[in-house]
Amino acid sequence: QAKEEGRNKVQHFDDQMLAKARRRRRISDALRVALPQQQFSLVYQPIVDLQTRKVVKAEALIRWQCPKLPGVGPAEFIPVAEDLGLIQEIGEWVFQQVALMARDINMQLAEPIQISINKSARQLTAGDSSALWLERLASLNVPAHWIGVEITETLLLDGRPSVQNALWRLRQGGVQLSLDDFGTGYSAMSYLLRFELDYIKIDQSFIRDVVRPRGRAIVEAIVVMAHKLGLRVIAEGVEDQRVLSILQEMGCDYVQGYYFSPPLAQADFLSWVQRESVWVG
Ligand code: C2E
Ligand code: MG
Ligand code: MG
Ligand code: MG
């Protein structure tokens, strides 16, 4: 009986592995044509300054309209793109789109908004595009401080000087840096010693928990630490008023989440900002 059960479990495990491998294979095949067939787009999620209640930033998030695999999200396909060596090209496309978007919307807004780009560690280790990015921003007449870069992943902790230099050059050029998903295994405290940064983005798993005493204590401690280090804090995944008011009480600087807005297409983002230029909660 026990043996039979064990065999079933192994069978089930094998099936799952096989299904996973198949899905990954299908994603890989489809990804190779995604860029040339223009299947990617970007959406933008507003980030609100808690002091002024204004939208001052936005995060650019990639979307993939894959005809064969509808609804596959970046958390699933970005790691595959990294393994295939496609992330460099995709990352350059994202950068180009964001630079143009920042230029377009900021021509129409009184107060400029900073748009941040997610950059995975593989993108950073594969080569230094910082000089190129700064040049392209200059040639597009986009001030570097209109652009931000969000980084994560313990891979960076290899302490490769090339990665450190690339980030340093970007920041010297005026691009602001955020440490994304802070508190998770992908974003460790040791970054704060090694890298010169501007923002810490506290992961949504912690933000959800601020309604409980222990969760609140942790986020409060992160805010105090960040401020002592001269960094500002962005809370990710704010979904309700209760969480928002606790974050406000503890002196969190910026908030982002479905409570304000989901990520939006560029045109919707612009009209949202123009409508809610001062957000009242
Ligand atoms: P991230 O950078 O931590 O992005 C935040 C994720 O949380 C986004 O998921 C966003 O849509 C989602 N989110 C925003 N507000 C809320 C909320 O109130 N509640 C909940 N539950 N979720 C919320 P998304 O767009 O699926 O992106 C997932 C991850 O994929 C990103 O995590 C980022 O690591 C990566 N990614 C997205 N776009 C790019 C890109 O252009 N390049 C690279 N290298 N990675 C990207
Ligand atoms: Mg991010
Ligand atoms: Mg994040
Ligand atoms: Mg994330």
From TrEMBL:
Domain EAL span(s) in chain numbering: 24-277
Tree of life domain: Bacteria
Annotated protein name in UniProt: EAL domain-containing protein
Organism: Curvibacter cyanobacteriorum
Portion of the full-length sequence here: 436 to 716 of 716
